Amino acid sequence: MSTRPFNFSAGPAVLPEAVLQQAAAEMLNWHGSGMGVMEMSHRGKEFIHIYEQAEADFRELMAIPSEFKILFMQGGGLAENAIVPLNLSRGLAADFVVTGGWSQKSAQEAGKYCQARVAASNQANGHTSLPAPSSWRLNADAQYVHICSNETIHGLEFHELPDLQALGCRAPLVIDFSSHVASRPVDWSKVGLAFAGAQKNLGPAGVTLVVVREDLLGHALDICPSAFDYRLVAQHASMYNTPPTFGIYIAGLTFQWLKQQTEVTAEGVALHGVAAMQARNVAKAELFYNYLDRSSVFESRVAPSARSRMNVPFFLKPELEAQRGPALYESLLSGAKAAGLLQLKGHKSLGGLRASLYNAMPLAGVQALIAYLQAFEKTGL
User: Would 135 be classed as within a structural domain?
Assistant: First the structure.
């Protein structure tokens, strides 16, 4: 049994231990090739095999239809905030649903390349609930509608994707699903493009996955760098420039690990892959939120209907935070580290604490965190 600490980092984040062990074993000599993956030519047969397997596994894992291209790119989600409008906006307009720090960044960045309009925002309530899609002010001339389907900083998640057609909108839906990719199934009939930095749920920082419907290719602005033109990247099977080879390799190992995961429901139904991960993630999140809702010391400040299963910001109760917050947070984080519970500090823009419960975080990690917080309530105050 592993004795590694439990890492609650929001990203770069915990990876499956089996993936790390396999990568370590293959570090110097991948499958008898005499080379490590980081030393391979991205055009050699060894890496082409790694790439093709990773792409096929991701398509199978996420049930991605054939009319979508899978691109392995660089720049992370932050760069995609520019790359998406460079490819889809045609220099015209796009609508943004601002529900937290990341969607806010997306709208601001897109404003450099097109008219970026805020169709809805929850800023007035401090990013603690989600605006109902029926309230969104969508425009007929929008080239796309952007949402961040899980806000890593503020801890909100769209548990169902909006159906833009049902709202009378013909624009494609763009989703930033960086922090919940592969944690639940995706209804691709509602999506035109999805992107995700790998460093939260799939692999190391450096590789970004883009899933884009083929009819959205070929509309890049003239100022779009060639390496960021989705059409060119797709035509060259993500090899237009040297891709992040090691990141693709680790992501590929993670896809294989995910495909092997199984959960059995209370009714005896066996779930596999992403469906199994969804069941686990629901159980982990429910356990932790139930603890917070019963706690006399800690609280979640997100509306229950909008709570993220992946990222849980939590805080001391207001009176306790106002009186002793800084000292108690410092004491709590110090004790957590000593107990093998790492990276629980909240985002700098919010303060408090944050536990990220990504796919590779086992239920035992959540149980250990709850036990530590319960003990802190009794002895740490």
Answer: yes
